[in-house]
Amino acid sequence: MSINKVKPANLRELKDSGWVSRPVKEEVRQNLLDMLQGEQVLFPGIIGYESTVIPEIIIALLAGHDMLFMGEKGQAKSRLMRMLVRFLDEEIPYLADGEIPLHEDPYNPITRRGRQLIAERPAGEAPIAWWGREDRYAERLAPGTKFADLIGEIDPARLASGTSMSAEEALHFGLIPRMHRGIFAVNEVPELDEQVQVGLFNILEERDVQIRGYPVRFDVDTLVLFSANPSTYNRSGKVIPQIKDRVGAVVRTHYPLDRDTGIEIMQQEAAVPLDGEFPLLVPRFMSEIIEQISICARRSKYVDQESGVSARFSIANYRTLLASARRRAVAFAEKPAVPRVSDLAHIHASSRGKLELDLMGTSQMNEDQVLEAVIAEAIANVFEEYVEKASLESIPATFAKGVRIEVGDMLPSSAYAERFRLVPAAWEKAFEVNPARSDAVRASCVEFVLAGLYATDRISRSEHHGRIVYEIP
Q1: For residue 308, which of 12, 91, 237, 406 sits 20 to 30 Å off, Cα-Cα?
Q2: Do the strands 128-132 and 91-95 form a parallel or antiparallel pair, or are they unpaired?
Q3: Domains of the chain
């Protein structure tokens, strides 16, 4: 609830303003309903979840559920959790007292110090400050997180000063109590220690905080969110049953359901400017190949499918592809810069560490070999969509006569027309893929045709120091 006039600075002014206290889940619910009625975009920048994930989130919020976002890596789980801040009020008031460790509701304080302040001071002397919505969200990555980090711990310094262990003043609060009246998220909850999970269970079940069993309780008002990979969440013993039972809603995320959606996400998240001194022109088939590489990796028998292949895999490779094209454009003063298949040689650097190999399989392929296999499969898939098979036979027949064609990421586009006089059918096939007259576009198209012929086992290829030679030995 936003106060449009001068912000109240004390409790009396706050009461006179008409401000109404609401539990955080009720606040989220009402703001969400207002946005739905106003037909506002609820999750800007989220693509591909309009009819699947987003309706589940809306229903869970309206139902007042704590939520678990379940999905493989790179499915926008953390981003979705962070975006729920949009459904909080722009700012809310709290008791401005340095001795209160929480952002106390001025009408319903939960700490002894907060209640004491309200009881002992006149309303006009109880100071009020304002807490912005962005500051009302906190998250923690589970690995290495301790009970003290999330819930809290007895403060030894305060004990040494004579404070009783059963007094509130002896406690040092963790993140969850400090997010009283806000949103708290735990990423990869199966990696939490069992003791910490028990503390979370107490938050979900009783909405209170108990530290080391001492009789100090706080009725914490927090929307709690989790994320997890299904392979670890469903593994026996990783998450205590009480946590699973108390999570109100499990929202299942997914990878793009079609390649076009994946390309849209990739281009949006890569955010590479295509203009400038050396503008970029990206043939559609090159964007399709980059996204198809991720699709092929997600179904490859050499890749651990339980881990998944993140959208960051496509994004990083797309940026690398465009960077290689721009480097060539600068070297040869070519405009526009047009990515080619030979630029894919550089995506090894941006792909390493993003594919988890299936170590239980019989294959002894290393990461680079697996990447080469999925690149070849992706090129073949896209190539067969663009090129009619019936009109290809004349190209391998020309190579069979002993023709060798060398291409590469650092060859000027102007050199391609001369080289491909030896294989005119390949040059004409490139023109069918894209009828542009630009040398750079034609060079990209002809490399696509040759790479497709190789990927479909019609010609052979050798590679050395960035130069690729196509032939029939």
Answers
A1: 237
A2: antiparallel
A3: 11-252 (3.40.50.300), 259-471 (no CATH)
